[in-house]
Design goal:
Blueprint: H1 3-26, H2 29-47, H3 50-73, H4 80-98, E1 101-102, E2 105-106, H5 111-133, H6 141-149, H7 163-168, H8 175-209, H9 215-246, H10 264-270, H11 273-294, H12 299-325, H13 331-360, H14 364-368, H15 372-397
Antiparallel strand pairs: 1-2
Helix pairs in contact: 1-2, 1-8, 1-9, 2-3, 2-6, 3-5, 3-6, 4-5, 5-12, 8-9, 9-15, 10-13, 11-12, 12-13, 13-15
Length: 415
């Protein structure tokens, strides 16, 4: 991925978002949502291509029509047919039309098209699931178009909000409070993006100063890469949250100080909160409920099985990126990417499981009385474990780049 483009896209996005916020706040209330949907389609056409904007608009209309009918007539059960059709559509049609490949891998300038399409696919799955679970009221067309197309929900690796959360959060705060809250969130997100840009400029210098390859040198580079990943992800996600708040949507934060998490389980409670809610809602709770009804005397086994289902669901959503980044038919690279993705998810399942078992041996009161040294050790170990596992998922999304672990301390910078 081109680092200059990775740094510039949030800035270009903000350049679009600021006049949209001012325009929507200046127009009458009844025109704000239609204007949001229209300007979102225009932003997609400008930042990506008019054909992608047209395709996503048509797909949004089709999803709304099918779901609105299901909700109004009270059709129950998961819409598996819709999920299957959407998957085939994205992989075989959208991929072949909009994505360009250099050999077996996506061209660098099209990587962010993958992010846009996969985020749209995730929102489609979440939208379909909410319609089948009874969490969604009959949707208005303008709300569906805002959810799929509006600028607040289009940042590069955008958090995938629940449709119900987006619609129910609108208008909770007074306009002045919403603007202040949105401006504060946006400024903090842009500060993270600028720190990310500065850290990348220092990256090569840090690598050149480490003259002796070894464990400590590799750990330094891995920690720097993880910190860079956090800054970029936080900046992209929270930028969308801030713009949404400025437009009147009281969206929850997507991160809750994950770098200070004292355990690995606590880290996953704080990282990418909206994605976690999606996976728990679709995979964990339905499986846990069904198993508990079938075998109420085996709570631990039921919880482990439900956790397995959640990590499998998380892996399936991440696999969308692997399928899109690798040219259709490049089975060797695709298999390698999926294998590394499975390895990553298995490692996360093991780390979270061990962390939960350790948490289960202490009470909340005992954890609250932990010494500062013990808390610092937990934060440091969680940070290092996350830094060590990140190269696996990076390699899964870049299966053409060779080995997962760097031979020398700075060869990871090439990834």
């Amino acid at each position: 991925m081109d680092k200059d483009w990775a740094s510039a896209l949030p800035i270009r996005y903000f350049a679009w978002a600021l006049p949209i916020v001012l325009l929507c706040r200046a127009c009458p209330e009844r025109w704000r949502k239609p204007l949001l949907a229209l300007t979102g389609a225009a932003a997609i056409a400008h930042l990506f291509s008019p054909s992608i904007a047209a395709a996503l608009t048509i797909s949004s209309l089709l999803l709304h029509v099918s779901i609105a009918r299901r909700v109004r007539v009270g059709v129950e059960g998961p819409p598996w047919a819709g999920v299957a059709v959407a998957s085939v559509l994205f992989y075989f049609i959208y991929g072949s039309i909009f994505l360009r490949y250099g050999g077996d891998y996506i061209l660098p300038e099209d990587v962010f098209k993958v992010f846009l399409l996969v985020v749209f696919a995730k929102k489609s799955i979440y939208y379909l699931w909410e319609s089948s679970s009874g969490r969604m009221r009959p949707p208005e067309l303008v709300d569906s178009l805002v959810y799929f197309l509006a600028v607040p929900f289009l940042t590069e690796t955008s958090p995938v909000f629940a449709f119900s959360h987006v619609t129910e959060s609108y208008g909770r705060k007074r306009a002045s409070h919403a603007l202040t809250d949105g401006a504060r969130t946006t400024a903090w997100a842009l500060a993270h993006t600028l720190l990310f840009m500065g850290l990348h400029r220092l990256h090569a210098g840090i690598a050149r100063r480490i003259l002796v390859p070894g464990t400590v040198a590799t750990a330094v580079v891995l920690c720097e890469i993880y910190l860079s990943h956090y800054l970029r992800t936080y900046g992209a996600h929270q930028l969308g949250v801030g713009v949404a708040r400025a437009l009147g949507y009281d969206i929850r934060d997507n991160f809750v100080r994950p770098l200070t998490a004292p355990s690995y389980a606590e880290y996953w409670r704080r990282w990418n909160v909206h994605m976690r809610e999606m996976v728990l809602g679709i995979c964990f709770y339905p499986v846990l409920l069904r198993l508990t009804r079938a075998a109420p005397d085996r709570p631990r086994r039921n919880a482990i099985a439900a956790a397995c289902a959640a990590f499998l669901g998380h892996a399936a959503l991440n696999a969308l990126y692997v399928f899109a980044l690798v040219r259709p038919g490049a089975w060797r690279l695709l298999g390698r990417g999926l294998f590394l993705l499975a390895l990553y998810e298995a490692s996360q399942f093991a780390l979270v499981g061990i962390s939960l078992l350790l948490e289960g041996e202490t009470t909340p009161a005992e954890r609250s009385r932990r010494s500062a040294l013990s808390t610092a050790a937990g934060i440091a170990s969680t940070f290092l474990l996350r830094a060590a596992s990140l190269p696996v998922i990076r390699a899964a999304l870049r299966p053409h780049r060779g080995s997962v672990w760097p031979v020398g301390p700075w060869s990871m910078a090439a990834q």
